[in-house]
Write a structure and sequence with these properties.
The chain is mainly α and 675 residues long. The chain is 45% helix and 3% strand. The protein has a domain at 70-227 and 244-342: Alpha/alpha barrel (Glycosyltransferase), CATH 1.50.10.20. The strands form three sheets. Strands 1-7-6 form a three-stranded antiparallel sheet, with no helix packed on it. It has a two-stranded antiparallel ribbon with strand order 2-3.
């Protein structure tokens, strides 16, 4: 039976003494405690659910979708300022407000972190300082002096990562030997070669293709004010000899460093005719994937690199592709009253599908106007006629996925596709049966050999490439991960695939192998183990695993042990460093919602930890249905690039409160949905 068709209220007869988790063998509670639980739900939880549900509905766009701001770290608005000065097309309106934003998020340590209240990051700090100086900030202003001192104390600009040093090379601030050789001739390599574009992730592909043009042709930024940052180098940049580092510390990394030294000498002598062919190949790759006003890969770094590459090879200013590419970058700006910032991308498919799940849980009818418009909007965004880069590994697989952004046809997202299909099914399913069927076919075809799923590609596991000097950011690949794999298992289970179905059985085996020693699961796309553990517990419950199994109880015990004194859960961005995996600075509404949803999926609705988590959510301040949340709740790339989804604090707490209400009202510990 389709799990989405099993209503909470018919799973177990209502009786005070049998409230979930409140019986004698679990917590020794009494019928009076169960009655108190129900009163709590009706007097405190239910009114909050109604209030937030109304507020979330009010945020729905006229065509049925939701989209919230997606905030990254200082690097994106800083790069927006650098981009304007590279082209001598300075955004006179946005630049001062982007600069104000950068000043506002400067850390107490003097530099800029990768996430709220995080440690100084040298690369983000160098870019932010350079951007502020380009925007006209006096180097002797207190905030600039503090930043400069902090950067020098951390080794100076020479210690920044490859992407930052490449930007500095384009502005003439470091010699080109400061960056690894990445010749554009890479575009001509055969598929059997150890490095090939198909062997790296989608985001790497779209960023690298135009970057190869820039790194090979070496254009110089126009930099109309002739601003430099020589003062950020502990050793003058032309005398610095330690730019390049082994990214993994392994012997393979040392080998590739040696190979780079050879290429530094040889690369200037590559045949010009072959270089022209390679540049043409890169530009063809870019043009095919330009994606109109949604931009190359629909992500800021690729979009900016595409503009710079087109300018470098001589596109006319009024060339339609260049005009559209520049507009795509501009569209990412968030215009505030005093501050502007630039988003790394937009998240409408993700926001709409997750908001729909929360509203359906809160009681919004699937056939009602709001959900019909949302589901129709989602159905209309399914990618049915473009075989993107994923087809390299699955040439006979029909398209059927959804992207993360408004449009990104070459790069549908496995995670989004699973969540959208789950929402379409839960909202009624019949109207969009064909959409769900195509999504299921695509998801089944995207499973990797190890039983898991990556976000965009199949078997993107060429780990040896992490040893090349260019890969110092550690985010070159897109291997299967527990959170994405859990979502796919959730989808298959909710759509009626039994746990002995080959794909589901392989997924369960993969998730068991991926469990951490402490019982948790890693969160690749959400911060962090709380996110991963919530994702997997939901999937295992939907798949019909015994939620009393020892490995599942170990995960439950881990979640309960991670609850903070205020009743909430919180996990810091620093938890992505192995030695800091238990670090937390504060509880957050998003992470508390994930933890309580995970515990409820494991049958623990009556556990005191869940009640305390719900009380935490009710006690936290919120405006217009959105909880206050400044701590970053997601990652683009662990340890490198972090995200704050503004929507998470609107729909995840609502989802948790509504589920708690429904389970208590229905007198059941059984969660009937994949998520």
């Amino acid at each position: 039976m389709n799990l989405a068709q099993q209503p909470y209220l018919t799973i177990r007869p209502a009786a005070a003494e049998s409230l979930p988790g409140m019986d004698a063998d679990s917590h020794n509670s009494t019928p009076s405690a169960a009655e108190a639980m129900r009163r709590f739900v009706e007097t405190e939880v239910a009114p909050a659910v109604g209030e937030v549900r109304t507020a979330l509905l009010a945020r729905q766009k006229s065509d049925g979708h939701w989209v919230f701001e997606l905030e990254a770290d200082a690097t994106i608005p800083a790069e927006y300022i650098l981009y304007g000065h590279f082209l001598d097309e300075i955004d006179r309106e946005a630049e001062p407000k982007c600069a104000a934003y950068l000043r506002a998020i400067q850390g107490a340590h003097g530099g800029w972190p990768l996430f709220h209240d995080g440690d100084l990051d040298i690369s983000a700090s160098v870019k932010a300082y350079f951007a502020l100086k380009l925007a006209g900030d006096d180097v002797d202003a207190p905030h600039m002096r503090r930043a400069r001192e902090a950067i020098l104390a951390h080794g100076g600009a020479a210690r920044a990562n490859v992407f930052t040093r490449t930007a500095l090379a384009l502005f003439g601030q470091v010699p080109w030997r400061a960056v690894p050789v990445m010749p554009v001739e890479i575009m001509l390599l055969p598929r059997w070669f150890p490095f090939h574009m198909s062997k790296v992730s989608y985001w790497s592909r779209t960023v690298i293709a135009p970057l190869l043009v820039l790194m090979s042709l070496k254009p110089r930024a126009k930099n109309p004010k002739n601003i430099g940052i020589r003062e950020l180098f502990a050793t003058p940049p032309e005398r610095e000899r330690r730019y390049m580092r082994n990214p993994t510390g392994k012997l393979a990394g040392a080998f590739f460093l040696g190979l780079d030294r050879v290429l530094q000498v040889v690369e200037p002598h590559f045949p010009k005719s072959r270089r022209r062919r390679a540049v043409d190949a890169a530009m063809r790759f870019i043009k095919e994937r330009l994606n109109g006003e949604h931009g190359l890969g629909a992500i800021f770094p690729a979009m900016v690199n595409a503009v710079l590459a087109m300018e470098t090879v001589g596109y006319a200013k009024d060339h339609p592709d260049l005009v559209a590419a520049k507009r795509a970058v501009k569209n990412l700006l968030i215009n505030g009253a005093t501050h502007d910032y630039c988003q790394p991308c937009m998240s409408p498919i993700w926001d709409t599908s997750l908001a729909a799940h929360a509203l359906l849980e809160a009681g919004e009818p699937g056939e009602g106007d709001a959900m019909r418009r949302a589901m129709d909007w989602l159905a209309g965004r399914q990618i049915l006629d473009v075989k993107g880069d994923w087809a390299e590994k699955a040439p006979d697989l029909r398209p059927g996925g959804w992207a993360f952004q408004y449009w990104n046809n070459h790069y549908p997202d496995v995670d989004d596709t699973a969540v959208v299909a789950l929402a379409l099914d839960r909202a009624g399913g019949a109207r969009h049966r064909e959409n769900i069927a195509r999504a299921t076919e695509w998801i089944l075809g995207m499973q990797s050999r190890n039983g898991g799923w990556g976000a965009f590609d199949i078997d993107n596991t060429h780990y040896g490439l992490n040893n090349i000097p260019f890969a110092d950011h550690g985010a070159l690949l897109d291997p299967p991960t527990a959170d994405v794999s859990a979502r796919c298992l959730s989808m298959l289970a909710q759509l009626g695939h039994a746990k002995d179905h080959p794909a589901a059985a392989r997924a369960i085996a993969y998730l068991k192998r991926e469990q951490e020693q402490d019982g948790s699961w890693f969160g690749r796309w959400g911060t962090n183990y709380v996110y991963g553990t919530w994702s997997v517990l939901c999937a295992l419950n939907a798949a019909g695993e015994d939620m009393r199994a020892p490995y599942i109880r170990k995960a439950v015990d881990w979640l309960i042990a991670r609850q903070r004194a205020d009743g909430g859960w919180g996990e810091d961005g620093a938890s992505y460093w192995p030695e800091r995996r238990a670090e937390a600075k504060a509880s957050t509404p998003s992470q508390t919602a994930w933890a309580t949803l995970g515990l409820m999926a494991a049958g623990e609705v009556g556990h005191p930890a869940v009640r305390r988590g719900i009380e935490y959510l009710l006690a936290q301040p919120r405006d217009a249905g959105r909880w206050h949340e400044r701590h970053y709740n997601a990652v683009g790339f662990p340890r490198v690039f972090y995200l704050l989804y503004h929507g998470y604090a609107a729909y995840f707490p609502l989802w948790a409160l509504a589920r708690y209400r429904n389970l208590v009202r229905g007198n059941t510990a059984t969660v009937a949905y994949g998520m």
